Protein backbone atom coordinates (compact mmCIF):
# COMPACT_ATOMS: atom_id res chain seq x y z
CA UNK A 1 0.00 0.00 0.00
CA UNK A 2 2.88 2.32 0.77
CA UNK A 3 4.33 1.65 -2.71
CA UNK A 4 0.94 2.37 -4.32
CA UNK A 5 0.57 5.62 -2.39
CA UNK A 6 4.05 6.75 -3.41
CA UNK A 7 3.43 5.89 -7.07
CA UNK A 8 0.16 7.83 -7.12
CA UNK A 9 1.87 10.79 -5.49
CA UNK A 10 4.64 10.71 -8.08
CA UNK A 11 2.13 10.52 -10.94
CA UNK A 12 0.43 13.67 -9.73
CA UNK A 13 3.84 15.28 -9.27
CA UNK A 14 4.82 14.45 -12.84
CA UNK A 15 1.60 15.96 -14.22
CA UNK A 16 2.26 19.15 -12.31
CA UNK A 17 5.89 19.21 -13.43
CA UNK A 18 4.88 19.10 -17.10
CA UNK A 19 2.98 22.37 -16.67
CA UNK A 20 6.28 23.95 -15.67
CA UNK A 21 8.10 22.54 -18.69
CA UNK A 22 8.12 25.84 -20.54
CA UNK A 23 9.67 27.78 -17.68
CA UNK A 24 13.30 27.81 -16.74
CA UNK A 25 12.58 28.25 -13.07
CA UNK A 26 13.68 26.01 -10.25
CA UNK A 27 10.98 23.44 -9.30
CA UNK A 28 10.92 24.88 -5.77
CA UNK A 29 11.71 28.31 -4.46
CA UNK A 30 14.93 28.46 -2.48
CA UNK A 31 13.11 29.01 0.80
CA UNK A 32 10.98 25.90 0.13
CA UNK A 33 13.90 23.51 -0.40
CA UNK A 34 13.75 20.68 2.09
CA UNK A 35 10.45 21.89 3.52
CA UNK A 36 8.23 20.58 0.73
CA UNK A 37 8.50 17.48 -1.45
CA UNK A 38 9.74 18.49 -4.92
CA UNK A 39 8.17 17.92 -8.33
CA UNK A 40 10.31 15.20 -9.88
CA UNK A 41 11.43 15.66 -13.48
CA UNK A 42 10.64 12.49 -15.40
CA UNK A 43 13.58 10.34 -16.48
CA UNK A 44 12.45 10.28 -20.11
CA UNK A 45 12.51 14.08 -20.34
CA UNK A 46 16.30 14.27 -20.06
CA UNK A 47 19.24 12.51 -21.68
CA UNK A 48 21.96 14.23 -19.66
CA UNK A 49 22.60 15.37 -16.10
CA UNK A 50 20.72 18.60 -15.41
CA UNK A 51 23.70 19.92 -13.45
CA UNK A 52 26.96 18.91 -15.19
CA UNK A 53 25.41 18.22 -18.63
CA UNK A 54 27.18 14.89 -19.06
CA UNK A 55 25.08 12.32 -20.98
CA UNK A 56 23.57 9.43 -19.06
CA UNK A 57 24.33 5.80 -19.82
CA UNK A 58 23.29 2.50 -18.29
CA UNK A 59 26.68 1.61 -16.82
CA UNK A 60 28.92 4.49 -15.74
CA UNK A 61 26.51 7.43 -15.47
CA UNK A 62 23.07 6.50 -14.17
CA UNK A 63 20.09 8.70 -13.38
CA UNK A 64 19.33 9.85 -9.84
CA UNK A 65 16.80 12.32 -8.47
CA UNK A 66 17.71 15.10 -6.11
CA UNK A 67 15.29 14.71 -3.20
CA UNK A 68 15.29 18.47 -2.61
CA UNK A 69 14.67 19.99 -6.06
CA UNK A 70 13.55 16.99 -8.13
CA UNK A 71 16.17 17.40 -10.88
CA UNK A 72 17.54 14.32 -12.68
CA UNK A 73 21.27 14.24 -11.94
CA UNK A 74 24.23 11.88 -12.11
CA UNK A 75 25.86 10.22 -9.11
CA UNK A 76 28.77 12.67 -9.08
CA UNK A 77 26.45 15.68 -8.90
CA UNK A 78 24.32 14.10 -6.19
CA UNK A 79 26.99 12.73 -3.88
CA UNK A 80 25.83 14.88 -0.95
CA UNK A 81 23.28 14.16 1.76
CA UNK A 82 21.23 16.69 3.66
CA UNK A 83 18.39 16.66 6.19
CA UNK A 84 15.00 17.29 4.61
CA UNK A 85 12.31 18.75 6.81
CA UNK A 86 9.41 17.31 4.78
CA UNK A 87 10.62 13.79 5.65
CA UNK A 88 11.24 14.20 9.36
CA UNK A 89 14.75 15.65 8.91
CA UNK A 90 16.07 12.36 7.54
CA UNK A 91 19.21 12.42 5.41
CA UNK A 92 18.58 12.13 1.66
CA UNK A 93 20.61 12.30 -1.54
CA UNK A 94 20.62 15.86 -2.89
CA UNK A 95 22.47 17.66 -5.67
CA UNK A 96 25.39 19.92 -4.80
CA UNK A 97 23.46 23.14 -5.45
CA UNK A 98 20.69 22.14 -3.06
CA UNK A 99 23.26 20.94 -0.52
CA UNK A 100 24.77 24.42 -0.49
CA UNK A 101 21.34 26.05 -0.10
CA UNK A 102 20.31 23.70 2.70
CA UNK A 103 23.55 23.60 4.69
CA UNK A 104 25.47 26.71 3.69
CA UNK A 105 28.50 24.55 2.83
CA UNK A 106 29.99 25.06 -0.63
CA UNK A 107 30.96 21.99 -2.66
CA UNK A 108 33.75 22.68 -5.14
CA UNK A 109 32.69 22.02 -8.73
CA UNK A 110 34.99 20.60 -11.39
CA UNK A 111 33.43 22.97 -13.93
CA UNK A 112 33.45 26.06 -11.71
CA UNK A 113 34.09 29.22 -13.66
CA UNK A 114 33.83 27.52 -17.05
CA UNK A 115 31.82 29.70 -19.44
CA UNK A 116 28.79 28.21 -21.17
CA UNK A 117 29.20 27.17 -24.78
CA UNK A 118 26.78 28.04 -27.57
CA UNK A 119 24.88 24.75 -27.13
CA UNK A 120 24.66 25.00 -23.33
CA UNK A 121 21.25 26.66 -23.27
CA UNK A 122 18.78 24.70 -21.14
CA UNK A 123 15.80 23.44 -23.15
CA UNK A 124 13.26 24.29 -20.47
CA UNK A 125 14.75 27.75 -20.02
CA UNK A 126 14.68 28.72 -23.70
CA UNK A 127 11.33 27.02 -24.34
CA UNK A 128 9.69 29.32 -21.82
CA UNK A 129 10.77 32.37 -23.83
CA UNK A 130 10.81 31.08 -27.38
CA UNK A 131 9.29 32.10 -30.69
CA UNK A 132 8.30 28.49 -31.25
CA UNK A 133 9.15 25.12 -29.73
CA UNK A 134 7.88 21.59 -30.18
CA UNK A 135 8.92 18.06 -30.92
CA UNK A 136 9.98 17.39 -34.53
CA UNK A 137 11.55 14.44 -36.29
CA UNK A 138 14.76 15.11 -38.20
CA UNK A 139 15.26 12.60 -41.01
CA UNK A 140 18.66 11.27 -42.02
CA UNK A 141 20.32 12.06 -45.34
CA UNK A 142 18.52 9.16 -47.04
CA UNK A 143 15.17 10.50 -45.88
CA UNK A 144 14.18 7.14 -44.44
CA UNK A 145 15.00 7.09 -40.74
CA UNK A 146 15.63 9.74 -38.17
CA UNK A 147 15.31 10.78 -34.56
CA UNK A 148 12.84 12.96 -32.72
CA UNK A 149 14.14 16.02 -30.97
CA UNK A 150 12.90 19.03 -29.04
CA UNK A 151 13.30 22.02 -31.37
CA UNK A 152 13.42 25.63 -30.15
CA UNK A 153 13.89 29.08 -31.70
CA UNK A 154 14.70 31.32 -28.70
CA UNK A 155 13.47 34.90 -28.52
CA UNK A 156 16.92 36.10 -27.48
CA UNK A 157 18.57 34.20 -30.35
CA UNK A 158 15.86 34.23 -33.04
CA UNK A 159 18.08 33.38 -36.00
CA UNK A 160 19.15 29.99 -34.64
CA UNK A 161 17.31 26.67 -34.31
CA UNK A 162 18.39 24.59 -31.30
CA UNK A 163 17.68 20.85 -31.25
CA UNK A 164 17.65 18.93 -27.96
CA UNK A 165 17.36 15.20 -27.43
CA UNK A 166 14.70 15.79 -24.75
CA UNK A 167 12.64 18.80 -23.59
CA UNK A 168 14.37 19.13 -20.20
CA UNK A 169 17.97 18.70 -21.37
CA UNK A 170 20.40 21.40 -20.29
CA UNK A 171 22.41 21.35 -23.51
CA UNK A 172 21.43 21.18 -27.18
CA UNK A 173 23.13 18.59 -29.37
CA UNK A 174 22.70 20.62 -32.60
CA UNK A 175 22.28 24.25 -33.58
CA UNK A 176 21.38 25.46 -37.08
CA UNK A 177 21.92 29.13 -38.01
CA UNK A 178 18.77 29.80 -40.04
CA UNK A 179 19.83 32.99 -41.80
CA UNK A 180 19.87 32.49 -45.57
CA UNK A 181 18.17 29.10 -45.62
CA UNK A 182 15.25 28.34 -47.92
CA UNK A 183 12.18 26.73 -46.39
CA UNK A 184 10.60 24.17 -48.71
CA UNK A 185 7.20 22.53 -48.45
CA UNK A 186 7.05 18.85 -49.37
CA UNK A 187 3.88 17.00 -50.40
CA UNK A 188 2.49 14.43 -48.02
CA UNK A 189 2.41 11.63 -50.58
CA UNK A 190 1.26 8.17 -49.59
CA UNK A 191 3.00 8.32 -46.22
CA UNK A 192 0.75 11.18 -45.05
CA UNK A 193 3.74 12.66 -43.23
CA UNK A 194 3.92 16.42 -42.72
CA UNK A 195 7.31 17.09 -44.32
CA UNK A 196 9.28 20.28 -44.89
CA UNK A 197 12.92 21.14 -45.53
CA UNK A 198 15.64 23.65 -44.78
CA UNK A 199 18.02 24.03 -47.72
CA UNK A 200 21.12 26.10 -48.32
CA UNK A 201 23.93 25.24 -50.74
CA UNK A 202 24.78 21.60 -49.93
CA UNK A 203 23.10 21.63 -46.54
CA UNK A 204 19.68 19.99 -46.41
CA UNK A 205 17.56 19.20 -43.34
CA UNK A 206 14.25 17.35 -43.64
CA UNK A 207 11.78 17.63 -40.76
CA UNK A 208 8.54 15.81 -39.97
CA UNK A 209 5.86 17.55 -37.90
CA UNK A 210 3.05 15.77 -36.09
CA UNK A 211 0.30 17.85 -37.71
CA UNK A 212 -0.16 20.03 -40.78
CA UNK A 213 -0.86 23.04 -38.55
CA UNK A 214 2.38 22.55 -36.63
CA UNK A 215 4.26 22.17 -39.91
CA UNK A 216 2.90 25.50 -41.18
CA UNK A 217 3.83 27.25 -37.95
CA UNK A 218 7.40 25.96 -38.19
CA UNK A 219 7.71 26.88 -41.85
CA UNK A 220 6.50 30.40 -41.10
CA UNK A 221 8.83 30.82 -38.10
CA UNK A 222 11.87 29.44 -39.94
CA UNK A 223 11.20 31.55 -43.02
CA UNK A 224 11.12 34.71 -40.88
CA UNK A 225 14.38 33.75 -39.18
CA UNK A 226 15.97 32.87 -42.54
CA UNK A 227 15.04 36.36 -43.80
CA UNK A 228 16.64 37.97 -40.74
CA UNK A 229 13.37 39.01 -39.06
CA UNK A 230 14.08 39.10 -35.32
CA UNK A 231 10.85 40.49 -33.87
CA UNK A 232 7.88 38.19 -33.11
CA UNK A 233 4.80 38.16 -35.28
CA UNK A 234 1.70 39.93 -34.05
CA UNK A 235 -0.13 37.63 -31.65
CA UNK A 236 2.86 35.32 -31.35
CA UNK A 237 3.12 35.92 -27.61
CA UNK A 238 -0.01 33.85 -27.16
CA UNK A 239 1.53 30.77 -28.78
CA UNK A 240 2.70 28.04 -26.47
CA UNK A 241 5.03 25.11 -26.88
CA UNK A 242 3.65 21.84 -28.22
CA UNK A 243 4.69 19.04 -25.90
From TrEMBL:
Cellular compartments annotated: Cytoplasm, Cytoskeleton
Gene Ontology, cellular component aspect: cytoplasm; cytoskeleton
InterPro entries membership: FYVE_RhoGEF_PH, PH-like_dom_sf, PH_domain, Znf_FYVE, Znf_FYVE-rel, Znf_FYVE_PHD, Znf_RING/FYVE/PHD
Pfam families for the chain: FYVE, PH
PROSITE patterns assigned to the protein according to its UniProt record, in alphabetical order: PH_DOMAIN, ZF_FYVE
Zinc found in the keyword field: yes
Domain named PH: residues: 129-227
Domain FYVE-type: 43-103
Record has Cytoplasm as a keyword: yes
Protein name: FGD2 protein
Organism: Nyctibius bracteatus
Amino acid sequence: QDAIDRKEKRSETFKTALHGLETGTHPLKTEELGRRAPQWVRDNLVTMCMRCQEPFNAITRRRHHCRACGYVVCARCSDCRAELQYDGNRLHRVCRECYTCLTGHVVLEDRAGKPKGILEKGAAEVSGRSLLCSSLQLLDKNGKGGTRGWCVIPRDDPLVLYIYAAPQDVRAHTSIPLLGYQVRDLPQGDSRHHLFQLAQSRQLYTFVADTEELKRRWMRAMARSAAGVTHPEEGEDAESCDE
